[in-house]
Design a protein that fits this description.
Belongs to the OSBP family. With about 325 residues, this protein is an alpha+beta fold. The chain has a single domain, classed as Beta Barrel (Porin), CATH 2.40.160. It contains six helices and 17 strands. A hairpin with a 4-residue loop joins strand 4 and strand 5. It is globular, with a radius of gyration of 21 Å. The N terminus is likely disordered.
Length: about 325
């Protein structure tokens, strides 16, 4: 297996803090959008944990069949010191950096919260649908939390298919290019309610203490029942302490989700960690119509969940908070 594309996912070293804790208590118009915390599909599990297959009942594994190898047998710095400032697509890395999954398998984790798409298809109002789509876009990166290894690089022409009748979708992806490495995917609802497709090409750089993955490629979601198409790109991912210390990950950058049918747009700002870590994992943004009138305020954390609130209620809360010194 060559190292044509190095994609790191890592563990956060920070505990959660309260984000606008008084907002939901102060105003009943705060609406929970989604809980985005990752479920139990983590990279490393003990062999033999998969439940046995029963006649007539299809069961899915809850952990990988092999544990990850240790990284204590070699010097990470001796490998990475030659990579500072370089694009990592041509650098060969030891297998100890990998988790026992292909990058194509990792792509299917986009669908962990597919119930949001089914819900969006049932909702009558464009604003409600955009809220669900925004939550789905944020939840796609939630599985990267508490992941210490990178997936294996797929071979050119390699494919992976997943059908989950219990969750109502099928997903197929293929490695369509080797230089540069590009993975394409296509998913559809089993009830013919949505299509989800795109291509992924992350450009990675090593900066001495961190590895940064700049996302490339556009993601498209089609809600067939409403004849709507949404597009967006993922935020930038950065893994810190790759040489020494506890690995932790942050997502930062601006994600714009555009509804090409109505002109509505959701603008989400993934906050960088900052000096004291207060902004770690935070997401803030808004939904606006084609005339740039704000329809909803979105806030939360990509590791926990998102909330939506009426803009007027949000401004009123912020005004009271400033007067009473809540954020000082």
């Amino acid at each position: 297996m060559d190292g044509d594309e190095e994609f790191f996912d890592a563990v956060s070293g920070f505990d959660s803090d309260k984000s606008l804790g008084g907002l939901s208590e102060a105003n009943p118009r705060v609406t929970a959008v989604v809980h985005t915390g990752s479920s139990t599909c983590n990279g490393a599990g003990k062999a033999g944990e998969r439940p046995p297959q029963e006649n007539g009942v299809q069961k899915h594994r809850t952990s990988l069949p092999a544990p990850m190898s240790t990284r204590s047998d070699f010097s990470v710095w001796s490998i990475l010191k030659r990579c500072i400032g370089l694009e990592l697509s041509k650098i060969t890395m030891p297998i100890a950096f990998n988790e026992p999954l292909s990058f194509l398998q990792r792509l299917t984790e986009y669908m962990e919260h597919v119930h949001l798409l089914h819900r969006a298809c049932r909702l009558p109002q464009p604003l409600e649908r955009m809220q669900c789509v925004a939550a789905f876009a944020v939840s796609a990166v939630a599985s990267q939390w508490e992941r210490t290894g990178k997936p294996f690089n797929p071979l050119l022409g390699e494919t992976y298919e997943l059908v989950r009748e219990d969750l109502g979708f099928r997903f197929i992806c293929e490695q369509v290019s080797h230089h540069p490495p590009i993975s394409a995917f296509h998913s559809e609802g089993l009830q013919q309610d949505f299509l989800f497709h795109g291509s992924i090409y992350p450009k990675l750089r090593f900066w001495g203490k961190s590895v940064e993955a700049e996302p490339r490629g556009t993601i498209t979601l089609e809600l067939l029942r409403h004849s709507e198409a949404y597009t967006w790109t993922n935020p930038t991912c950065c893994v810190h302490n790759v040489i020494i210390g506890k690995l932790w990950i942050e997502q930062y950058g601006t994600v714009e989700i555009l509804n090409h049918s109505t002109g509505d747009k959701c603008v989400l700002h993934f906050k960088p960690c900052g000096l004291f870590g207060k902004e770690l994992h935070r997401v803030e943004g808004h939904i606006q119509d084609k005339n740039r009138r704000k329809l909803s305020i979105i806030y939360g954390k990509w590791t926990e969940g998102l909330w939506g609130i009426d803009p007027a209620a949000y401004e009123s809360f912020c005004a009271r908070a400033k007067i009473q010194g809540w954020f000082s």
